[in-house]
Design goal:
227 residues; alpha+beta; Heat Shock Protein 90; 2 domains; 6 helices; 5 strands; elongated
């Protein structure tokens, strides 16, 4: 009887986590659609008006402002790609991570690097989404709290699994004995468990942070793999 209760609790917890993930994915879709359909369109109209005024009055400052808006629109579209789960799972993992690191380096003037070892292969869509989000959140945590100057990522494709190693040289933090529900680290580890992904976070004050994510290679007949 006790074993059945444990199994039932595990099933309910897994279903709850799955539902939470689906709801979050839908929120990301709505947010990305709002950015792409509304905000970018409004900015495009604003740019058109500024460009028209710049030509009418031959104002170089307005011309410069117009070009800045072009960059803002481009950045918003890139953000849209990294918010929409459907867009995330369309791309291969190395390309996704390369784009994310380039975005960080460009916007925050931080040195980033990525090294891919082995021959890349497709991973299940749910794993792609969760791994990308987990790495994205770990990088964001480092940028928000650790003030790093360097972020390095290594992706190793092996015969049985893919291993992601993320390092930053920020201030680091004391790893709690147990992650508090509702916090970013708790959410990351729960997501990983839902997708069957192993994640390990190592950090200490003054020593930066090292995140390791391990994802098993999918079986050949797995139909839910990214292309």
């Amino acid at each position: 009887m006790g074993s059945n209760n444990v199994d039932l609790k595990a099933q309910l917890e897994t279903q709850l986590l799955r539902t939470q993930l689906e709801l979050q994915a839908e929120k990301f879709k709505v947010a990305s659609r709002e950015i792409y359909d509304n905000i970018s369109q409004v900015l495009a109209y604003v740019r058109f008006g500024i460009l028209k005024a710049a030509r009418q009055y031959q104002d170089e400052n307005l011309e410069t402002d117009s070009q800045l808006l072009v960059q803002v629109i481009r950045d918003l579209r890139n953000l849209n790609v990294h918010l929409d789960p459907d867009e995330i799972t369309k791309k291969d993992m190395p390309s996704l991570l390369q784009e994310e690191l380039e975005r960080i380096e460009k916007q925050l003037n931080i040195t980033t690097s990525i090294e891919v070892k082995g021959q890349p292969y497709a991973l299940p869509e749910n794993a792609v989404f969760i791994i990308f989000r987990s790495l994205q959140e770990c990088m964001q945590n480092a940028l928000t709290h650790g003030n790093p100057q360097n972020i390095a990522l290594e992706v190793s494709y092996n015969a049985k699994d893919v291993i992601f190693n993320l390092w930053d040289d920020g201030s680091g933090f004391q790893i709690p004995s147990q992650f508090v529900p509702g916090t970013g680290l708790h959410t990351i580890t729960h997501r990983a468990r839902l997708a069957g992904v192993a994640i390990n976070i190592q950090s200490a004050p003054g020593n930066g942070t090292h995140v390791t994510i391990n994802c098993s290679k999918p079986e050949p007949d797995d139909k839910n793999s990214d292309s």
